[in-house]
Every structure is written in C-alpha cells, then in structure tokens.
Amino acid sequence: MAETLFEELKRYVGFGADDEQSLRSLHELARQEFPAISEVFYDHILQHEGARSALAGESQVGHLKVTLVAWMEQLLRGPWDEEYFLLRCRIGRMHVRISLPQHYMFGAMNILRQELNRIIDQRYVQQPARLFAARMALGKILDLELAIMLHTYREDLLAQQARSERLSTFGQLVGSIGHELRNPLGVIETSLFILKGRPLATDERAAKHLGRIGEQVTLANRIVTDLLDMIRDRPLKREPLRLDEVWKDALTSVHAPEAVSIRAEGLEGLPSLQGDPGQMRQVFVNLLENAVQAVGEKGEVVLSASAGPEKVELVLEDTGPGVSDAIRRRIFEPLMTTKARGIGLGLPLVKRIIERHGGSIAYAPREGRGARFVLRLPFQPSTP
Ligand code: HEM
Asked: Is-annotated flag, keyword DNA-binding (predicted)?
C-alpha cells in the first residue's frame, strides 16, 4: 500500500517505536502539569496584541485551555496513527479558518517545547540516556505537529490558487456578459423614465409595477457593477482617508428598519489613513448591508475602532444569527451566498479592497450570538 503523508513525515523526522515509548513514559511524568502548561501557553498569547486579537474573548480562552490539555494528552500518549493525523489536520484548519498568521504557530509551539523540556530535564536529571531520548522524541513529535499545521495552511493556499484560476477563466466571460447587460438595462431604465411620465403611471397598480421594475433594474445594475469590480481592479486612490467621514457617508446608503440601531465607537479619534475613500465606502456599505439583513427587524450593529502603533483595528459586530461553521471557511469566496437575493460578491469585494489597502479582514465568532468581522488597516499601505 502506498505510504500516507503522515507516514512519510514520520519517516522523514525519524519518528519510530523508541520515540513512542519515550513519549508514553514522559506522559506519566508530565500529565499533572498539563493544566499549568496550558495557562502559561495562553498567558503568552494574551500578552501579544496581534496574537490576542485572534481570540474571541475570555470564555473562548477558557474552552481552549481545556482543549489544549486534551491535545497534550494525545501528543504524549498517542496512538500516532492516521486518526491522529486527521484530527490534527482538523485543528490546523481551525487556525486557517480564523486567518491566524502562521508565524504565531512557531512561537506558540516553542512555549510547549520549553515547558515539556523543563519537565524532562527535572525528572530525568539522574538518567542522561532517558533524558536524551525523551528530548529527541519530543523534538520529533513537535516538528511533526508543526509540519501538519503548515500542511493545512498549504492546503488552503492551493485551494485559493485553484479558485483564482477558475475565476480568471470565467472572469473574461463574466466581464463581457456584464458589459453586454449594461446596454439592455440602460434601455429599460430610459423606457421606464418615459413611462413614468405617461398617463399610465397614474393608475395605482401600474405605478406600483413600474416602481418594482425600477427596483429590480437597480439591483441588476448593482450586480453587474459588483461583477465588473470583482474581475478588474479599479485603480486604488491614495489620499487622506478619514474613516469617520467614510462611515457617515456609507450610512446614507444603508436602509435599516427603525428598531435596528447602527452605531460606531472610537472612529472619530482615529488618525487619518492613506487610501481610497470611495472603495472604503463600499467596504462599509457591503458589511453594513449584510449586518442589517442578518439582524432582521430588531437588533444592533456596532463598529468599534481603535488605533495601535501601526494599524487601525475595526470590529463590526451584529446581533444576528452569526455565520455557521460550514459557511465560515468559505465566507470570503466569490459566489458563496446564503441569501435569496444576491450572488455572493459583497464579502469577496470587501476582502479584495481591504487587502489592496495592505490590510486584512477575518471573521471571528462573537461571544454569544452574532457575527463579528475584524478589519485591520495599516496607516501607510505598503502594497501598490
Ligand atoms: C502550538 C500551537 C497551538 C496548538 C497546539 C493549538 C491547539 C488548538 C486546539 C486543540 C484547538 C481546537 C479547539 C476545539 O476543539 O474547539 C485550537 C483552536 C483554536 N486556536 Fe489554537 N493552538 C495553537 C496555536 C494557537 C495560537 C497561536 C492561537 C492564537 C493566537 C490560537 C487560537 C485558536 C483559536 C481562536 C481556536 C478556535 C478556532 C475556532 O473555534 O474556529 N491557537 N487550537
């Protein structure tokens, strides 16, 4: 039978039966300390502002501490089989899904390495051969863990590449269809304008239907614009960008039911950024429209802004149902939608615009109910 990826990885780092034995012995010595190690691990993450922002809040940290203890149990007790590999891939994908930068993994793994090596050094101080074997085995298994985590990031990158190739093939087709649709839509709009001025429009039912046609033409135009924006990057302007002003301007295009409150905190105190106010307005409009639709007739949409030394962070939260696990992974993919109206270009466009400003956007589950988007924008974008 062909060698599996995990078998190949184990062969590559030379992980064998002796290492398994050493890890099982270490498990007996170290297991009481797992909860304390888990505390040290998350204290370290919480001290770093970038890493901390990947976490949704204290209750999530509480849960993660427990899962890390289980993770260490399995790390040292095995069995190190295909099921182990698949479980570790699932955990890796969780980090990919929350867009956790890969480099945080190395520092985090090092905490575990240091803590477990400390136990090895203390417990085997009189037994140099066992000490050496345990350190070797631990080094190998933690390298395997890192390899699996990086493998899941690579998987994601390859999937993204495949998607962007698919998109570029369809892009040209979509572009020309989009252009071709503009003309008939333009004709409908003009005819509608003329009809609205005719006696026909005084008939109540006819007027209602003319109104409906108008709404649908606007919607169709919006879809065409989004499609065209998606396939050809509009050049990015570089000018002073006041997010509070862009936000106020975006609010004028978003219609929310009366019992839905939309507010922003901390925007006015932000320094000016460099960027494209028109495109950033679209970011706010798309996010707000999604949030308002998710909230329904009653609820809250809140944007909280804060400035770090190099970046501005914006967190948009709503009290809607949130995004299910299944959708979360694909939420920024084009044509991914859960709405009856809409073709799934809103969030991909938002992501594209934020990234072209040198920033990032991620979905992070909100404590309790609702959706939470975290946007980060540098003061000075470095990308062209
Ligand atoms: C050696 C490194 C790491 C290990 C072994 C590890 C372990 C785990 C495990 C076992 C889970 C699954 C939890 C569950 O089953 O619900 C998980 C999820 C998670 N980890 Fe890590 N982690 C590592 C690094 C990090 C770092 C550096 C961060 C943040 C800075 C982080 C943030 C998270 C978050 C937010 C989740 C939950 C994701 C979700 O619910 O979708 N992890 N991690």
From this structure: no
